[in-house]
Every structure is written in C-alpha cells, then in structure tokens.
From TrEMBL, chain B:
<dbReference type="GO" id="GO:0070527">
    <property type="term" value="P:platelet aggregation"/>
</dbReference>
<dbReference type="GO" id="GO:0017134">
    <property type="term" value="F:fibroblast growth factor binding"/>
</dbReference>
<dbReference type="InterPro" id="IPR008614">
    <property type="entry name" value="FIBP"/>
</dbReference>
<dbReference type="GO" id="GO:0005634">
    <property type="term" value="C:nucleus"/>
</dbReference>
<protein>
    <submittedName>
        <fullName>Acidic fibroblast growth factor intracellular-binding protein</fullName>
    </submittedName>
</protein>
<dbReference type="Pfam" id="PF05427">
    <property type="entry name" value="FIBP"/>
</dbReference>
C-alpha cells in the first residue's frame, strides 16, 4: 500500500439551475478513485454551495496512482427520482507523484459535462502521501519526469541522453461496444474519456519503466497520440527521448543550451575541421578516408517491395510502404531531403560504427524526439528521412498483446534507420510519428532528420561541467558545422551539388538543406526566416479494402514528389537555401488525399546562394508563347528580388573565389527540373542575375505547368510588421517583448462542386490555407510588430466533401527598431543573451509603437476615461494585470466571495519571452469529448466548436493554476476530430491537448509573475 | 469562400472594441462588415472582405457567448471560460450597460414590463436605435431594477457593486430605477424638451431629500420609494396659500429680498400668489400616487411655464426659489 491519496471538496460556484421549480440546486459531490467512492453531504438550495468536506482518503498502489485519474462528479440530489449529474472533473494526479513537481493540487476546476459543456466550477484540494521506496515497485515508475518540450527543459541540465523510448497500448473503443446501443451518449462519452485517461496513464507508466531500466529519470519530447481506428479499436501510443536530467539551482543561468555542453575543445573543433582533430577520430578520419566503391543510389530495396508476413491471421491485409525512397525514380535535385539511398552506404563507415558502437548503434533505434540541442550535441545534419506505409486495419483481437501495431511501427522505424544510414548518419533527430485514418485504411508516417551526434552525451561520465565558460572564446563558433555533409562526396546517396562551406571553406556543404529540427541557435543566418508551405490535393476513386490501400500507396510517392518540388521552388523564390521544422502531413479521405508540407525557410550563410528559377518553353518555341514566358520570368525575378528585400537577406560578401565546383555533374534530370550548373564562380557578386548561376528551369510544356507556376506566385507575403515561422524561434528576430497570444483556429470547407479536378482542388486548398494566414494577420494587427511562431497546421478529410484545417500558433511581439539595428550590425547572431544591455533603448521606443496600436484597435468614442486603460493595455495581454486587477477583485470579492482568476499564459513554444521558467509542474495531457443534440441552438458547428475550444482552454488553464502554475509551454492540440450531422441537429467533437505546466517569473523578478492575482482559494473564508 | 465552419479562439479572448460597439448597436454581421469596410480597416491591413466577414462573425460569436456573463458582471471576474484582462472586462461591462439617451427618454418612468417591451419596435422606429439594441437596453434596465429592488442600502452603491459600473453610470441607472418605480410621467409633449440628464439630476435630488433613505439608511427600498410621512407633512404647507395674512407676509418678505436684484422683479411680484399657489398645490397633492406620477408635468404647467412666459432666466429662478424657501422659514408658523 504505497500511497495515500487525499481529496477535499471545498465549494462550488456558478452551478446551473437543476430544479426549475425553485430555480436552485441541491448539489452534492461523489469522489471516486479506482473502485472506491466517497460522497459529500447535500448542500441544499444553493448555486454556490459550500461543502467544506472532510479529507477523503484513498489507500492505493502507486501503479494505480499513475494509471487512474481522480474522478469528481457533481450531482443534483433528487428525493424521488434518480440524481441528475451536473458534470465531472477528472484530475490527473501524476504531477503529485514527482517530488520536484507540484506538491498539492488546489483550485477551481470547471465542472464539465460532455453534453452541456462547462457548468459551474468546483474548488478541490488534492494531496498524495507516498510511503515506500518507489523503485522497489517495478510496475510503477513514479518519479520519472515527463516533458512535452522538445529541447532540454530550461532549469535542467542534461547529464546523459539515453535515447528513444516508445510504447503503445490498445483497447476496444467504448463507442463501438455493444453496450453503446443501450446507453446514453453521455455515458458513452464518459466511458471513452475515462478509458483514454486510463490508457494514457498506463502508457506513461510503462514508458517510465523503460526509462528507469535505461537508467534515466526523465522523458523529454514526449509525444502521445491517439488513433481512433473505429471498429478495430483504440490505440494510444507515445514516443519520447529518455534522459538523465539534473536540476539547476535556481540562481544559476537559466539557459541550458549555452550552459551545458560536453568537453568543449574537441567537439567544437570537430565541427569546423573534423579531419585535423586527432581527439575526435570518430568523425574526422571517417570523412577523410572514405573512398569505397560507390553504391548506385537507385538500388533501393525497401520494405515496400517485399512485405513480410507479419500478420498471418489476416492474410488479405495488404500493406505497402511508401517513402521518399520511392522518389528516386525522379532524382532529388541535390539536397538531403530524402532517405533515398541504399541500405548500406559504404563499408568504411564501419570505422565510425565501431567508435560509436557503445553510444548509439547498440540501440535498436537511435532516434531522438528532440528538435533543439545543447551546444555541440549536433555535429552534422544529413537531411530529412521519412517513411510511410499504408495499412488495412483489422480488429485488435487481444488488447494485451498489441503486436500488430507494434510490428507496423517497428517496420517503419527500421526503414527510417536504414535511410539514415544511407545518408551516412547514425542517428535521427527531430523524430516524430503520425497516422491518418479513413475507414479501414491507415497511413502510418514517420520522419526525422538524419544526423551525426556527439556521442559524449550518450556515454556516462563524459560531461565536463567545469569547463563550460570558455565556449565563446573559441576562434570560430560552430555556426556552420552542422551543415557539413556527413556522407561521402564520392558516394552520394543522391545527386547533390556540393560546394565548400561558405563559412569555413574547409568542408563540403550541399546547396540546400532540409531538416525537421529547429534551427540551431548558433547557426549563421542572413535576414529573417519565413513560413513556407507546399499544399496539394489529389483525387482518388472511392474504393474498398485492399484496392483502396493499393491506390493510396501508389499515389503517395507522386504526392511526396510534388510537395517536394513545390517546397523547393518556393524556397528559391524566397531566395533562401534551408528549411527547418519540416513537417509533411498526408491525410487520407474517401475520395482524395491531402498533402501539406510546412517548414521555415532561412538563408544559411554557410550554404551557397540559391539560384533563381528559370522558365523554359517547350522546344520549338513559338513566338506568342515566348512573350508569355518572358512575362512569367519577369514576375518570378521580381518576386525573388522583392523577397530578398522583405526578408532582409544580405549574405556577407565573399572576397575570394570559392574553390571547388559542384561535384557531381548533374546527371539525368527530371522532366520538370533542369539545373544549369554554369557554376561555382562569381560568388563574390551580390546581385547576381538569377539566370546566371545554377537556376532551376521550370519547363512549361502544358497547361498544368502554367498553373503550377501561377500557384507559386499566389502566396502572398505577410503584411508589413508580420513574420511567420513554424519553428520555435524565428531566425533573425532576437528581441522579443513579453506579449504573447496563443490561438487555435479551425476551418472546414465543403466542396460543393462535384466535378472537381486536381487543379481546382489544389486552388481551393491553397486558398484555404492562405486565407487562414491572412485572417491571423488581420486579427492580430494590434500586436504589430509581431511574429507568428510555431504555426502548426493539421489537415484532415473528416467526410466525403469536407476539408478541415486546424492551426495552433502563438503571436509574439518584438521590438522592431532594435532588430533592424542588430541585423545591420551583425547578421550573424547567437542566441538572445544580450537583450539586457539594451533594455533602456527599447523601452522608449515601446511607448511609441504602442500608442499607434491604440489608434488601430480602439477607435470608438465614449470609452470611459476612468477605467484607466493605459496605452499599452490595448494590445492584448501585454501588460500584467496587476494594477487594474486589484481594484476589480476587491469589488467582486464583496459580492461573490471569489478571487480573481490566475492568468495562465499558453504557448506552443518551450519558453515565454521575457520570463524565466523556475519550475516544471508536470505534464498536461487531456482528452475531451463534446457532443450536442441542439446544434442550431448552439450557433451551428462554428458556435459549437468555438465554445468547445474555449472550454478546453479554460480547463487546461484551471488545471495549471491548481498545480500552482502560471503558464503552459509546449502546448499542442494533437487531435481535433469533428463529426457533424446538421440534419439531425447533432455534432460531436474530440480534442486532445498536451503541454508542460510551469511556473515562470519575469526575467528581472524572483517571484512568480502573477502570484498576487492568484487568490483562487480565498473564497472559502470570504463567502457569506 | 463559403466556410462550413470557421472559428478562431485565443487564449486571451480577442475583442475589437469597434466591433463590440457595432454588436451592441444591434448591427447584423453583414451591416457591421459594411461599416467596417467604410471605416477603412481593409486598406490599413491589406485584408480582403472575406477576412473581415470571418473576423466579424468570430467576434459576434464571442460576444454572444459573453453576454450571459455580462448579465451578472461579477461573474465575469471569476469565470474561467474567457481569459480577459481586468481593464478589458471593465470596458466590456461599462459599454454593455451604456444606453442611448434617445432611447432612455422614451422609456423613462414607464413600467418595465412585458407591455412596454412590446412597444419597443415603435420606440426603435422613432429613435432610430435598432430593435436589438433597444431590447438590450430595456433588459438592462429591467435586470438592474429587479436586482436592486430587493436590496438594502443606498441605491447607487448597490448598482455600482452589483454591476461593477462607473459612478456616473450607476447614478444614471439609479435615476432610471427611481423613475420606473414611481412611474413619473415624462412622455408628454410639454416635457419633451427635458433631457435625460435633467431628469437624472432631479432623481438624484429626490433620492437624497425625499426618500425614506434620506432619514433612515437601513430599510428596504429606501432609495426608491418617496417618504410617505414627508409627503403627508407637505400638506401642512397649504397654510401658505390659504391663510391670507401669511401669504401677504411671505410675499413681502420675498419681494424685499428680491428687489433690485433681478430684471424680472415686477413679474415676480405680480405673479407671486399664482406661483406660490401652484407650488404648494403640487406639494400638497403628492400623497396621491396619481399626482406623484404627474409631478413633473404639474411642475412644468403650473410653475415653469408661467415663469418662462415672463422671460425669467435660470438665475432668476434660482434666486426666486432660494428666497421663497428662506422667507418661509422666517414666518412664525414655521418656526
């Protein structure tokens, strides 16, 4: 009996009227954990009941503590008939099991009902007493910390990175059980919510066990997903990176990325000149001495061609695999974006392998879900590797042995691993997995960035902590090291044009670099980055079963290829040469496939300047056509020039000729692409005409091609004052001010036209995404200058003729003038450590910029002056709510006895600008279902979803506040599944969100930023 | 593009004050979009009409969801659904309870009942305030009335606390409640020139001097009901006009004090008896509810109009009334 859980029900407020006769409610509360239930007394005739219950005590195994949520049900007492449920609160008590996280859960929780939404609030106190040594109980893994954040959490230092952990659990979906026919929708929804809560608890516990086995104490980059497979069941799966983290004392520097790194000298030298450094033979010698026989890059035995019979029980279950590999029929134009390579890159890699054997290769999957790393951890980046596979779902027969699903993922991971090897890399970073399900077809996808890591982090006792401060005295920072190719130039996995690094001139770099990770903070960039999206729709015929799966898997490679082409063209159009945070999502519907690739483009100064795009007509050229081509060419050139201006791309001039030329002469080019490699010289000139260097040639040979080019040019740049990216930080912006506005937006478009072509669909889809972005810019105009960060698009085809796009992102303000000054002074910037020195300056400017904000946002006369709205206040939650908050809450105290509500900031990023995270309180992982049978009355689907999303936010904030936190970082909405039936006046929606609850303080402050406003519990004494 | 669904939800609830005002003014979404387009937001932000429509719809939805909370503003401060900075909450509430002078003038003194609510479309047509906005304003009056009806303590303070309004707005609402409770007639043609603010001033004076609350501040309805005893005592003033001696004595005292201080002296002297009779008669009748309702119309007819036809200035009026009151105090009867 290793744990005692204690709960106390204090009070309720704003309860709904349950008794029409008296307009009041006789409320009582049931508190349930596992199979034990306690009840409070009935508090008669009150909408603001005070229960002040005793402590309800549950004595339970810590295994149960990890799996089960505390379930609180508020009911209306009825003498004659059954008691009516008002709503429920599920409290995940996991944060209490970790000594470093929260010690008590206390606060107001929204009472949630799956049919009616939030119905009042309840004040609850929860504590846990753990008795025994936790590690003796092997079934539980209390004490392992979980983080959604995909970097080393601030206020921790990493002692060791153990590697990939994964787990999945399956169950039957209660919605599809026989009993669902006789129970109410409410009961069914609650069964589902509870089951998923249980399953994610179990999953987390099992992952925790694996971490303990590996000797770690934390999981970073924890990514948990649900697959609602319908009839065939419910899968909850998670991946993460096991680490050993040490807590930094609160007084020390908060920024772990600059604080913690390995024995510095060898690592950094290795980045710049691996060949010279004897101390780091692992990478150096390998790269030099590689001269093995070239492996033909098109020899690609992939798992797709020979499906192993892994599911004998269902022989018809067809599976096929698609990945970038398949694209090799149309060779890549020289960047590491595909794992298109043979299984074995070269025999001499064995040297490397021997060296890092202990560190990496022994691991089954050397994968890391992290997207940003401590300095020196990431040595080289190869390129994006991805794998997809189409599966037919069948019923999960035995929930205890989820072997089929495990095998599927295993297979995909193997493929990823082999792709990485082909790129000469021993690890995959920025790794993630996803699925898209339509009826019985499921596309499993995995992607990551092949790379070479510094093995020191993976060996025990290799960290030299004392040696940390000399980092920046190094003569040449590793601002280009990660760009250097990890593979052998004579034996390239795909045709690429290599040049010598424009930074150090010693190593070869590719002409473009695609990655799924965040841009390393030490990378040298020119100008700003921007969001680049490739969007694609493909119609497919409706089909069933195996035929359907075949059709889909045949379409996938073409989609990937086209997405890739689009990305590449758009990158060139913006005069950039690298993509970070690349996510390619392919969603399947009954009659179409949607593909959306998002990434943040930047100009890396280490890489060669991108060539332009050249338009070529069909040969022989007729005259009327030629004119047309010329105009298009002009438009493209103009756009490129404009973009260069817009993103302030001014690569540093190179004074000397760069040695070396693109190494492999471009061989067989595709129909669409042709590379002029006229080449390699004249890099010193800044304003090269685009045709001169290795420009892409877009051949216009049919109307489709014309359309494609037009669609290229339709992407509108963000209005002035706005920037956008899908990564953690925006390259080129370093001086954030503290205003943040996180938002979620969902749009569903109904395709009305039955005879749609691929082109028409593409246009619709592109417009949908573009209009969404435009909407954001408009709505957030009062925050200018501002950047939309971590723009995360998810697309789905919920029904036959519907396209759904959901976006979560955060808008952050920054100080414009300072940026310009800094970029002008030194285009190569390193992190954001210098803001403090310049604090005086931006403050003055701030007043100016905010007064213009006031003009734009509040134009109405008759604003009472007495409310004391300072000019700064007009821009969202820029100012802290303290000064006005006090007077307000005093008043409301008198009438209602409640305090004002703690302000909880939310962000999809791992940090909040201007603040320092002093404590991680635990992971937030919540799953909600909302259903309505009065859709019209709730304002249609929009009204329904609007209030549901607002409710989800409210519940997340309430849980964080109850843990004592004031912010959620790394917030994400993993799932938003909406099903509607307007004719029946019904709709149902499922939302899954996650994030890390934290306490953060203003950078200048020691106290939590909103401590004074958080008086959520005072009501008990204050109420009359 | 026609969207099946289109929502935008911010962690901090985003509210554009301009759109809020349009919503409060009862504009439909389409009309609001038109107004905004004319206002030039589009050029400012390089947006299209689609964007504006989507934004307006979103905001309208948000306001509709908030409306329930605005009905009991204290809830807005400790609800969890919307994260709204306190200063913004204050603006939302204040604006929601702000009313149009044209509208309130039509409703002032009427019973806040379903019957009156049915007439709102006429009022809307007459005042050019949209019906939707009329309904909101009317419901606000009614809601405030219902809440303070059952409360003890000073009226203005109760309104301020329960509805978190500014002092000015709370006073205006106190006037509305006071008028509605006493059903003062304000709609007659002769009263049309009197603004709401004029009435609100009178209400303030009446509340401070004539209600139960003026003498005892811990009874129910203390500020909304006139003090019956006081009204009864007013009857005793009749002696001022019935007793011939007293009337003359009063007149000579007033005239002595006024002589040489005003150009309208002759008219004052000539009309003294009529005016005094008018005032005292009004005061003496106030025990009848019916006459209370006609209080303002009587004042205008019996006192203000005669004075106005004699071209008194406001200063003359003040002077006359001051001395009229002071002189009465000197009379033996009232000592």
């Amino acid at each position: 009996m290793p744990g005692k859980l204690k709960a106390k029900i204090v009070a309720g407020r704003h309860l709904p009227v349950m008794d029409r006769a008296s307009d009041l409610t006789d409320a009582f509360v049931e508190v349930k954990f596992g199979n034990t239930t306690f009840k409070t007394d009935v508090c008669p005739k009150s909408l603001n009941p005070q229960w002040n219950s005793e402590w309800f005590k549950f004595e339970v195994d810590d295994e149960d503590l990890q799996d089960e949520p505390l379930q609180i049900t508020v009911l209306d007492h009825d003498t004659y008939s059954a008691n009516d449920a008002i709503g429920k609160v599920y409290i995940d008590i996991d944060p209490l099991l970790c000594s470093e996280a929260a010690s008590v859960i206390s606060g107001w929780f929204p009472i949630y009902d799956t049919i009616h939404g939030i119905r009042g609030e309840i004040n609850v106190l929860v504590k846990v007493e753990l008795f025994n040594d936790l590690n003796r109980f092997r079934q539980s893994s209390c004490g392992v910390k979980f983080f959604c954040t995909t970097s080393i959490p601030r206020c921790y230092r990493v002692a060791m990175v153990h590697g990939f952990v994964e787990e999945l659990v399956v169950n039957e979906d209660p919605e599809y059980q026989w009993i669902d026919r006789i129970r109410t929708p409410r009961a069914s929804n609650e069964a589902r919510q509870r089951l998923i809560s249980l399953m994610s608890g179990e999953l987390q516990r099992k992952i925790g066990l694996k971490v303990l086995e590996m000797g770690g104490n934390a999981v970073v980059g924890y990514l948990q997903c649900f697959d609602l497979e319908g009839e065939s069941g419910l899968v909850v799966r998670a991946i993460g990176t096991a680490c050993t983290l040490d807590k930094l004392s609160s007084g020390s520097a908060p920024n772990t990325t600059t604080h913690v790194h390995p024995n510095t000298a060898p690592a950094s030298n290795a980045c710049n000149s691996p060949s010279k450094d004897g101390k780091e033979p692992v990478f150096g010698e390998d790269v030099l001495s590689f001269s093995g026989p070239p492996t033909p890059f098109r020899a690609l035995p992939t798992s797709s061609s020979s499906p192993p019979p892994f599911s004998p029980s269902k022989p018809c279950s067809r599976q096929s695999s698609s990945s970038d590999t398949d694209l090799s029929l149309t060779p890549k134009t020289g960047m590491g974006s595909g794992g298109s390579a043979g299984k074995e890159a070269g025999p001499l890699k064995t040297l490397l392998r021997q060296q890092t054997q202990t560190a990496l290769e022994q691991r089954e999957f050397p994968f890391f879900t992290l997207t940003s790393f401590p300095l020196g951890f990431l040595v080289h980046v190869g390129g994006v590797v991805s794998a997809r596979s189409v599966k037919l779902l069948d019923r999960i027969h035995n929930p205890d042995e989820p072997e089929t699903r495990d095998a599927w993922w295993e297979e995909i991971r193997q493929e990823i691993k082999s792709h990485a090897k082909a790129l000469g890399c021993h690890a995959v970073v920025g790794y993630s997995e996803s699925t898209s399900i339509c009826e019985e077809v499921c596309i499993l996808s995995a992607s990551g960035t092949a790379s070479i890591l510094n093995p020191r982090y993976m060996r025990e006792g290799c960290l030299d902590i004392g040696n940390t401060d000399h980092r920046f005295e190094e003569p040449s920072p590793p601002s280009c090291g990660f760009c250097h190719i990890p593979y052998d130039e004579l034996n390239m996995p795909f045709p690429a044009q290599l040049t010598y690094c424009h930074h150090c001139r010693r190593q070869k770099v590719p002409d473009v670099l695609f990655t799924t990770i965040d841009m390393p903070s030490e990378a040298a960039v020119s100008g700003k980055g921007c969001l680049i999206q490739a969007r694609l729709c493909r119609l497919k015929k409706k089909a069933q079963g195996e035929v359907n799966a075949t059709v889909i898997s045949n379409l996938l490679p073409f989609m990937e290829y086209e997405l890739h082409t689009q990305l590449m063209n758009k990158l060139k159009l913006r005069n950039m040469n690298a993509l970070f945070g690349l996510q390619i999502q392919i969603s399947v519907g009954e009659n179409m496939l949607l593909g959306l690739a998002s990434a943040t483009g930047v100009y890396l100064t280490a890489l060669p300047a991108p060539g332009g795009i050249q338009i070529a007509g069909k040969t022989p050229i007729d005259l009327s056509n030629e004119h047309h081509i010329l105009t298009i060419q002009k438009r493209i050139n103009d756009t490129i020039a404009k973009n260069r201006e817009l993103y302030q791309i001014n690569p540093p001039e190179l004074t000397e000729e760069v040695v070396g030329s693109p190494i492999p002469e471009p061989r067989q080019r595709s129909r669409l692409f042709r590379s002029h490699s006229e080449s390699s010289d004249e890099l010193s000139e800044l304003d090269l005409s685009h045709g001169k260097k290795d420009a892409f040639v877009l051949e216009i040979d049919d109307t489709d091609a014309v359309e494609d080019i037009h669609s290229l040019l339709t992407d509108a740049p963000p209005p002035s004052g706005f920037y956008s990216c899908n990564t953690e930080i925006m390259p080129g912006i370093y001086n954030w001010t503290s205003a943040v506005q996180m938002f979620t937006s969902v749009r569903v478009f109904r395709l009305s036209n039955v005879n749609l072509t691929n082109q028409g669909l593409n246009k619709i889809f592109t417009d949908l995404c573009e209009n969404l972005l435009k909407s954001f810019y408009f709505k957030l105009r009062s925050m200018i200058p501002c950047c939309l960060c971590h723009l995360n698009f998810t697309v789905a085809v919920p029904e036959d003729e519907l396209i759904q796009v959901a976006v979560t992102a955060v808008a952050m303000t920054f100080d414009k003038d300072q940026t310009q000054e800094r970029t002008a002074d030194k285009p190569v910037t390193k992190g954001c450590s210098e803001t403090e020195e310049q604090l005086q300056f931006p403050l003055e400017l701030f007043a100016d910029s905010s007064s213009t904000n006031t003009q734009t946002s509040s134009k109405i006369s008759g604003v009472p002056e007495s409310t004391g709205v300072s000019p700064r206040a007009s821009s969202l939650d820029r100012c802290s709510p303290l000064p006005e908050g006090r007077s307000r809450s005093l008043r409301s105290n008198r009438s209602f006895g409640g305090g004002s509500v703690t302000v909880v900031k939310m962000t999809p990023l791992s940090f909040l600008p201007g603040t320092r995270i002093i404590k991680y309180l635990g992971i937030i992982n919540m799953f909600f279902i909302r259903e309505t049978t009065s859709l019209r009355e709730e304002g249609g689907v929009s009204g329904f979803l609007h209030s549901f999303i607002a409710e989800v936010f409210a519940m997340v904030r309430a849980h964080v506040a109850a843990l004592g936190g004031n912010a959620v970082v790394s917030y994400s909405m993993k799932e938003c599944m909406l099903m509607e039936n307007p004719h029946k006046n019904q709709a149902q929606c499922l939302i899954n969100v996650s994030g890390d609850a934290v306490i953060c303080v203003l950078e200048t402050d020691q106290e939590p930023m909103s401590s004074t406003t958080s008086i959520g519990q005072t009501c008990t004494s204050g109420a009359t | 593009m026609a969207m099946e669904l289109d929502v935008f939800v911010g962690n901090t609830t985003i509210m554009d004050e301009e759109v809020y005002q349009l919503w409060l003014d009862g504009y439909t979404v389409n009309d609001a979009v038109k107004v905004r387009m004319e206002g030039g937001v589009l050029e400012e932000c390089e947006a299209s009409a689609d964007v504006l429509l989507s934004d307006t719809m979103d905001q309208y939805r948000t306001f509709q969801m908030c409306e329930r909370l605005l009905h009991s503003p204290a809830k807005l401060a400790n609800q969890l659904l919307f994260q709204i900075p306190p200063h913004r909450q204050a603006v939302l509430i204040e604006r929601y309870y702000t009313f149009d002078d044209a509208f309130v003038r039509e409703v002032l003194g009427k019973k806040l009942s379903k019957g009156t609510k049915k007439d709102l479309d006429d009022i809307s047509a007459k005042t050019a305030v949209t019906l939707k906005s009329c309904r909101r304003q009317f419901d606000n009056f009614k809601r405030v009335f219902k809440v303070v009806e059952e409360l003890k303590g000073p009226l203005v303070e109760n309104i301020r606390q329960h509805f978190l309004l500014s002092d000015k707005l709370a006073r205006d609402y106190a006037a509305i409640v006071f008028f509605a409770n006493n059903r003062f007639e304000t709609g007659k043609r002769k009263l049309q020139y009197i603004t709401f603010q004029d009435f609100a001033f009178c209400a303030g004076q009446l509340i401070n001097n004539w209600t139960v609350g003026a003498v005892d501040n811990m009874v129910e309805d203390m500020d909304v009901d006139l003090d019956k005893e006081f009204l009864q005592e007013l009857k005793e003033l009749k002696v001022l006009i019935t007793d011939k001696d007293l009337l003359d004595q009063h007149k000579s005292l007033v005239c002595t004090a006024l002589r040489g201080k005003t150009k309208a002296f002759n008219e004052m002297e000539a009309n003294f008896k009529n005016l005094s009779r008018g005032l005292v008669n009004i005061a003496a009748k106030l025990t009848n509810t019916k006459d209370v309702r006609d209080f303002f119309i009587d004042l205008v007819e019996k006192f203000i109009e005669p004075c106005r036809s004699d071209r008194w200035t406001a200063a003359d009026m003040r002077l006359y009334l001051t001395h009229y009151t002071n002189s009465a105090h000197i009379l033996d009867t009232f000592k």
